[in-house]
C-alpha cells in the first residue's frame, strides 16, 4: 500500500509538473503573438515628462504626488481635467489621455492616490474611499482653486469622485462641469469576483488581505521570480486587463504598474473597495453632464455595474465598447479620449444654451473600435500599424 501511495504521489507530482509546463508553453506562445503587435504601441512610448510636479498635503499630513500638463495657449474658459487612476495603478495609466487632452487645448491635473505611484504610503486607518475623496479635494484646491473642472475617474478613481461628491457637494455644485466614470462601480459588491462568481469574491475578501499581508515582507524577493515567469505573468495580466489583442510592450507596462503596488497596500484597500456604496451619492450629479464608459469584456467591473450608475442619472450617456477589458483607456485610448472630449463639448454647448441635463434622455451606445482592428490586422501581417485615427462604429 505504501508503494501504491508513493506511486500515486509521484504521479500527481508529474501531472502537476506537466500542467505547469503546458501553461508555460501556452504563455510563451501568447507572448510571441503579442510581440508581433508591438507596432501598436504609441510612437512616443509610455513614458511622459510632466510640465510641472508638486506635492500636495492631504488632510492627515500625507504627501500626494501631483503632475500638471498645460497647453501653450490655454483658454481660461475651458475646464481643467482632473484624472484619478484606479486600484494598483498610478497616474502613469493616463499617459495616452493626458497627451491628447493637452493637444486639444486643455489643462490636465493628475495625481497618485495615497499609497500608489510616487505618493506616500498611508497608515491603515486612512486607507478608505472616503479619505480618497478628501485627497481629491486637496488636489483640486492646490492645483485649480478657481474655474470650471471636469472629473475623470477610472475604477477606484471613479469611486474617489463619488466620495468627493458626498463629502464636498458644494464644490461639485459650483465648479464641476462634467464627470466621466471609466470602468467603475457605485457599489463594491462583486468587485473581487474576477468574473468567477461570488464564491471567489468572498474567498478573496476573506483570505486575500491576510495572505497579501503575510507576503508583504517578502515582496522584494519576487523580482527574480517575476523575471523567470514573465510570460506567465503577462498572460494573467492580459486575461484580467484586456479583451482584445494588445502588444507585449503594453503588457509589460501594465504589469510594472500593477506589481509596483505593495502587497500591504493591496491588502489595505480590498476591504475599502468591497464596502464601497455610493449609489445614493449619485443624486448629487443629476444636473451634471455624466459619461459612463466600460468594456463589454471587463471582468472586474462588467457593464452591469455601470448600468446601476446610469439608472440613477437620467441625462447620462452610457458607452459600452466591444472587445474591451478593465484597462480600456490603454486598450482603446482613442475611443476613451474621444468620448471624454465629446462629453466636454456637450457640457460647453448645453451650458451656453442653458439646456438642463435633467431634461435630456439617457443615451446608451455600443461601439466597435474599427481602427484598432485594422491596425491589429496590419501588425499581424507584418505591414505595421501606422493608422491611429480614432474610427469607431456604433452598433446600437
UniProtKB/TrEMBL annotation:
<dbReference type="InterPro" id="IPR029058">
    <property type="entry name" value="AB_hydrolase_fold"/>
</dbReference>
<keyword id="KW-0378">Hydrolase</keyword>
<feature type="domain" description="AB hydrolase-1">
    <location>
        <begin position="79"/>
        <end position="333"/>
    </location>
</feature>
<dbReference type="GO" id="GO:0016020">
    <property type="term" value="C:membrane"/>
</dbReference>
<protein>
    <submittedName>
        <fullName>Lipase</fullName>
    </submittedName>
</protein>
<dbReference type="GO" id="GO:0016787">
    <property type="term" value="F:hydrolase activity"/>
</dbReference>
<feature type="region of interest" description="Disordered">
    <location>
        <begin position="377"/>
        <end position="396"/>
    </location>
</feature>
<feature type="signal peptide">
    <location>
        <begin position="1"/>
        <end position="22"/>
    </location>
</feature>
<dbReference type="InterPro" id="IPR000073">
    <property type="entry name" value="AB_hydrolase_1"/>
</dbReference>
<keyword id="KW-0732">Signal</keyword>
<dbReference type="Pfam" id="PF00561">
    <property type="entry name" value="Abhydrolase_1"/>
</dbReference>
<dbReference type="InterPro" id="IPR050266">
    <property type="entry name" value="AB_hydrolase_sf"/>
</dbReference>
<dbReference type="InterPro" id="IPR000639">
    <property type="entry name" value="Epox_hydrolase-like"/>
</dbReference>
Amino acid at each position: 500500500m505504501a508503494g501504491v501511495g508513493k506511486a500515486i504521489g509521484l504521479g500527481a507530482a508529474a501531472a502537476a509538473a506537466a500542467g505547469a509546463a503546458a501553461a508555460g508553453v501556452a504563455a510563451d506562445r501568447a507572448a510571441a503573438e503579442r510581440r508581433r503587435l508591438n507596432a501598436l504601441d504609441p510612437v512616443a512610448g509610455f513614458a511622459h515628462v510632466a510640465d510641472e510636479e508638486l506635492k500636495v498635503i492631504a488632510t492627515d499630513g500625507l504627501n500626494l504626488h501631483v503632475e500638471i500638463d498645460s497647453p501653450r495657449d490655454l483658454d481660461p474658459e475651458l475646464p481643467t481635467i482632473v484624472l484619478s487612476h484606479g486600484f494598483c495603478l498610478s497616474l502613469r495609466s493616463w499617459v495616452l489621455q493626458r497627451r491628447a487632452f493637452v493637444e486639444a487645448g486643455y489643462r490636465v491635473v493628475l495625481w497618485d492616490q495615497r499609497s500608489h505611484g510616487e505618493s506616500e504610503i498611508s497608515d491603515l486607518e486612512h486607507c478608505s474611499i472616503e479619505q480618497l475623496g478628501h485627497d481629491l479635494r486637496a488636489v483640486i484646491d492646490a492645483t485649480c482653486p478657481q474655474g470650471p473642472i471636469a472629473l475623470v475617474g477610472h475604477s477606484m478613481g471613479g469611486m474617489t469622485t463619488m466620495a468627493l461628491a458626498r463629502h464636498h457637494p458644494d464644490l461639485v455644485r459650483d465648479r464641476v462641469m462634467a464627470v466621466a466614470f471609466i470602468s467603475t462601480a457605485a457599489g463594491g459588491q462583486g468587485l473581487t469576483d474576477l468574473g468567477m462568481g461570488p464564491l471567489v469574491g468572498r474567498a478573496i475578501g476573506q483570505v486575500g488581505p491576510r495572505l497579501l499581508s503575510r507576503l508583504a515582507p517578502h515582496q522584494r524577493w519576487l523580482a527574480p521570480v517575476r523575471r523567470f515567469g514573465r510570460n506567465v505573468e503577462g498572460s494573467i495580466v492580459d486575461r484580467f486587463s484586456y479583451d482584445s489583442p494588445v502588444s507585449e510592450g503594453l503588457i509589460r507596462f501594465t504589469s510594472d504598474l500593477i506589481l509596483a503596488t505593495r502587497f500591504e497596500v493591496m491588502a489595505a484597500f480590498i476591504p475599502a473597495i468591497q464596502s464601497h456604496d455610493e449609489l445614493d451619492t449619485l443624486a448629487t450629479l443629476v444636473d451634471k453632464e455624466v459619461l459612463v464608459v466600460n468594456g463589454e469584456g471587463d471582468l472586474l467591473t462588467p457593464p452591469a455595474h455601470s448600468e446601476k450608475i446610469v439608472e440613477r442619472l437620467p441625462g447620462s450617456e452610457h458607452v459600452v465598447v466591444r472587445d474591451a477589458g478593465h484597462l480600456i483607456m490603454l486598450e482603446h485610448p482613442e475611443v476613451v479620449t474621444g468620448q471624454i472630449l465629446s462629453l466636454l463639448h456637450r457640457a460647453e454647448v448645453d451650458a451656453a444654451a442653458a439646456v438642463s441635463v435633467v431634461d435630456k434622455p439617457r443615451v446608451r451606445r455600443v461601439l466597435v473600435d474599427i481602427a484598432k482592428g485594422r491596425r491589429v490586422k496590419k501588425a499581424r501581417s507584418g505591414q505595421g500599424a501606422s493608422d491611429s485615427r480614432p474610427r469607431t462604429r456604433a452598433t446600437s
